[in-house]
């Protein structure tokens, strides 16, 4: 059974937030009545434009008395042309004027229109230059403003192109963590980290941060205890954790220990980012082990109780999901009764939480005990309900979980009574290939473990035709899973007959020319089982499936050998197939497998060779009387 | 002035104490500088100090301060006993505030500069005086002074209204169109950029 990450990692962005790349549109046009703020700001703008630094400063300080977090004021600054003036001030060498200007820009850049305008007016380049200023306060203001503006792609690119990433990383180096430092120094680090966090949403910037030597600095600051520095640092790491090079560093620089430690912080935002980072990193087995070794599984499990904070819950369930890919972690989770808690989260949760919860349960089903636990906690019914969802990522996970549960006959009974198998089957019609494939995989244990399985399958109108037609798919995973399902379905004679009518033999044969071992294995199994009806053996031979199968024996994969031997054994009941096998050197290859420790393989190999030999003998006899 | 070695040492010690922000060696340097300036100056004060002109030149050369009005005011601030001559004590202690003063010391200093008539308030007229050359571009249809008057109003609103954060309402705390030191202090504590609100009077540390 496959497992794919449910977050789709786009090429250039990793954040799941909606990115604001399209030029933003102003919301209310039409009000011709300019606000009082507009006139007031326009008046002040006049003095900023036309005054010397003294007059400018008085005007700038006055401007801050307006409520700069209100959109009317923000837009007034833009509409009166004051924004250009503010940016021009940044380009002077007057530290006080630059400071006054940045204090305003920092506030108003919270507005999306203003951000775009600042970038359009070339403000970012100037702010990057200011990062070199000797004035600490000015640097901090510039960094914080960059953090605000860099919330869209083009801005982030601009920052990088003008050397901003490098400078921001340098700011992280200003002082060392353990030494006694003053508030103003940590302020610089905090602001630089905020800017890096914003910028790190772009893939190229993640690389740039690494090239500028940012990773050891991030690791260093991860050890500090100021929450307001930790949050942007962990935020940045979590953003970058989609890159393997960062995950490697996270592993080797001992960052997991700190991430785990901060799961117990009293700041929920920090907890969330730590859990997110773990979520992203736990793709790597070594990191999953490290999380367990640093005792991170218990705090993660405990955080499931904080179910009101949905963002936190999504991050935590995500981390648990990925950690559960490792069996040792699943065993640990059992100690904390995590499965029971997860089941309670199957209802009344937002989708991003559900995807992870059910992903986690799907992994936990690897362990037999958990399949029972899920049933006893009443988890089967909500799972089956989720089969009617529309979100593909969610469906993929649900299918896996249902399939996992279906391995227990007791669970299977419940699934069947709730119409779960029919729901799974109809997911084969879903346009998304990942959903189709995961549904097909899930059907395998269902068909195997359901009572009256054959009858059940027949009851799905058009079901067999549907699944056979999926053999026309272009998606490898779909093909593989469908072969696996067909191998199971074909164990019922009647259903095999129907599938044969629908052309399963030529469709399977067409797939035979493949190098993909997983597909080969399941295809061979399907062929082996489909041989057991009518003249299918002959039909496979005529469809030219035999020679390619013979080549499968050259693969290194023992599972492929076993399945192929079984298929060849079945096919060898037909003399024409024996001839082809003999011509393709099957005997020699199978001889090597007769001594295998795998009983099934051994028997199939021996049986096949016996059939070929018998035919050869008979042919000899017929020739020479 | 020629001084015995012991006398000099006593002077250094006493100035280091009173100026607070300089080390002994720094004070020594400043005294040496003072002596040089006195020697250069006309002997009007018989070596006890130097006059306004020398002071202005020194500050211009050292710190690039060009505004004559401001420099005049700075001289007056330094010259505490109003003799028209800067003594060595006035020199060292004055520089201590200028270069290394705490926020409190600087606030008092700036306020003293801006309070042109020394009555403990910065009045609208005084603000007008100090700001009247600050507007470089005036719209053609306006009286040249209108802009400055407006700016004065804005400054007053800003600095005398810091208690209340209400723009556009004339909330002059004293209700009399002038800034007391309390007003000024509160405004500057709230926004440090307003320390030199009416013109640069501190050296630019670049």
UniProtKB/TrEMBL annotation, chain A:
Natural source organism: Setophaga kirtlandii (Kirtland's warbler)
PANTHER family given in the database record: ARMADILLO REPEAT-CONTAINING PROTEIN 4 ARMC4, OUTER DYNEIN ARM-DOCKING COMPLEX SUBUNIT 2
Region of interest (Disordered), residue spans: 1-31
Any Pfam family the entry gives: HEAT_2
Gene symbol of the encoding locus: Armc4
Start-end of each ARM repeat: 122-164, 163-214, 462-504
Name under which the protein is recorded: ARMC4 protein
Comp. bias intervals (Acidic residues): 10-22
From TrEMBL, chain B:
Molecular functions (GO terms): calcium ion binding
First and last residue of the signal peptide: none
Keyword Repeat (UniProt): yes
Keyword DNA repair: no
Domain of life, per lineage: Eukaryota
SMART domains in the record: EFh (SM00054)
Residue ranges of domain EF-hand in the record: 66-101, 102-137
Keywords per UniProt: Calcium, Metal-binding, Repeat
SUPFAM superfamilies in alphabetical order: EF-hand
InterPro entries: EF-hand-dom_pair (IPR011992), EF_Hand_1_Ca_BS (IPR018247), EF_hand_dom (IPR002048), Recoverin (IPR028846)
One Pfam family cited in the UniProt record for this chain: EF-hand_1
Name this protein carries in UniProt: EFCB1 protein
Organism name: Setophaga kirtlandii (Kirtland's warbler)
Originating gene: Efcab1
């Amino acid at each position: 059974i496959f497992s794919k990450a449910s977050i789709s990692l786009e090429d250039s962005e990793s954040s799941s937030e909606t990115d604001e790349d399209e030029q933003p549109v102003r919301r209310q046009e039409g009000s011709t009545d300019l606000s009082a703020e507009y006139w007031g700001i326009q008046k002040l703008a006049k003095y900023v434009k036309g005054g010397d630094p003294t007059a400018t400063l008085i005007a700038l300080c006055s401007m801050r008395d307006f409520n700069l977090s209100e959109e009317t004021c923000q837009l007034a600054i833009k509409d009166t042309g004051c924004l250009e003036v503010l940016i021009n001030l940044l380009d002077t060498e007057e530290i006080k004027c630059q400071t006054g200007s940045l204090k305003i820009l920092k506030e108003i850049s919270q507005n999306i229109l203003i951000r775009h305008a600042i970038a359009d007016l070339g403000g970012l380049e100037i702010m990057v230059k200011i990062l070199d200023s000797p004035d600490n306060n000015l640097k901090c203001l510039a960094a914080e403003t960059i953090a605000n503006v860099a919330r869209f792609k083009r801005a982030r690119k601009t920052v990088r192109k003008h050397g901003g990433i490098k400078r921001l990383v340098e700011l992280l180096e200003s002082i060392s963590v353990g030494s006694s430092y003053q508030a103003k120094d940590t302020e610089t680090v905090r602001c630089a980290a905020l800017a890096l966090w914003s910028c790190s949403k772009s893939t190229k910037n993640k690389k740039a941060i690494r090239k500028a030597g940012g990773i050891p600095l991030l690791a260093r600051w991860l050890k500090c205890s100021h929450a307001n520095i930790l949050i942007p640092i962990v935020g940045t790491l979590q953003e970058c954790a989609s890159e393997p090079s960062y995950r490697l560093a996270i592993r080797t620089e001992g960052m997991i220990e700190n991430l785990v430690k901060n799961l117990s912080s009293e700041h929920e935002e920090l907890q969330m980012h730590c859990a997110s980072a773990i979520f992203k990193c736990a793709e790597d087995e070594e990191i999953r082990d490290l999380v367990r070794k640093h005792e991170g599984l218990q705090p993660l499990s405990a955080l499931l109780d904080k179910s009101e904070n949905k963002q936190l819950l999504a991050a935590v369930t995500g981390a648990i999901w990925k950690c559960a890919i490792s069996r040792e972690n699943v065993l640990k989770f059992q100690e904390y009764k995590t499965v029971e808690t997860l089941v309670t989260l199957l209802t009344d949760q937002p989708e991003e939480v559900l995807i992870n919860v059910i992903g986690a349960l799907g992994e936990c089903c690897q362990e037999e005990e958990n399949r029972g636990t899920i049933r006893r906690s009443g988890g089967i019914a909500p799972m089956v309900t989720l089969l009617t969802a529309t979100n593909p990522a969610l469906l993929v996970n649900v299918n896996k979980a249902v399939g996992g549960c279906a391995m227990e006959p007791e669970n299977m009974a419940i699934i069947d009574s709730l119409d779960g198998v029919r729901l799974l089957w109809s997911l084969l019609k879903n346009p998304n290939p990942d959903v189709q494939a995961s549904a097909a995989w899930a059907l395998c244990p269902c068909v195997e473990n359901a009572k009256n399985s054959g009858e059940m399958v027949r009851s799905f109108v058009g079901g067999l035709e549907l699944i056979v037609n999926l053999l026309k798919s272009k998606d490898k995973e779909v093909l593989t899973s469908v072969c696996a399902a067909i191998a199971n379905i074909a164990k019922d004679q009647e259903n095999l007959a129907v599938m044969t009518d629908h052309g399963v033999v030529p469709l399977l044969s067409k797939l035979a020319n493949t190098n993909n071992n997983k597909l080969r294995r399941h295809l061979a199994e399907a062929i082996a089982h489909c041989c057991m009806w009518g003249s299918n053996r002959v039909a496979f031979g005529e469809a030219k499936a035999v020679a390619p199968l013979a080549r499968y024996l050259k693969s290194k994969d023992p599972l492929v050998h076993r399945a192929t031997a079984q298929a060849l054994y079945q096919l060898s009941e037909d003399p024409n197939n024996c001839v082809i096998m003999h011509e393709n050197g099957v005997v020699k290859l199978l001889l090597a497998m007769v001594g295998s420790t795998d009983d099934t393989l051994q028997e199939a190999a021996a049986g096949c060779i016996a059939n070929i030999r018998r035919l050869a003998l008979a042919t000899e006899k017929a020739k020479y009387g | 002035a020629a001084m015995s070695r012991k006398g000099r040492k006593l002077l250094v010690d006493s100035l280091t104490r009173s100026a607070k922000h300089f080390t002994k060696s720094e004070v020594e340097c400043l005294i040496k500088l003072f002596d040089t300036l006195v020697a250069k100056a006309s002997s009007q004060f018989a070596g006890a100090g130097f006059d306004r002109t020398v002071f202005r030149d020194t500050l211009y050369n050292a710190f690039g301060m060009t505004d004559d009005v401001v420099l005049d005011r700075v001289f007056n601030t330094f010259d505490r006993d109003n003799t028209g001559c800067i003594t060595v004590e006035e020199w060292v202690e004055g520089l201590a505030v200028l270069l290394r003063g705490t926020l409190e010391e600087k606030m008092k200093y700036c306020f003293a500069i801006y309070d042109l008539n020394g009555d403990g308030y910065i009045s609208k007229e005084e603000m007008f005086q100090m700001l009247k050359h600050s507007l470089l571009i005036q719209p053609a249809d306006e009286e040249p002074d209108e802009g400055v008057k407006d700016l004065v109003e804005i400054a007053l609103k800003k600095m005398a209204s810091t208690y209340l954060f209400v723009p556009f309402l004339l909330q002059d705390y004293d209700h009399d169109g002038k800034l007391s030191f309390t007003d000024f202090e509160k405004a500057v504590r709230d926004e440090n950029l307003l320390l030199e609100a009416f013109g640069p009077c501190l050296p630019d540390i670049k």
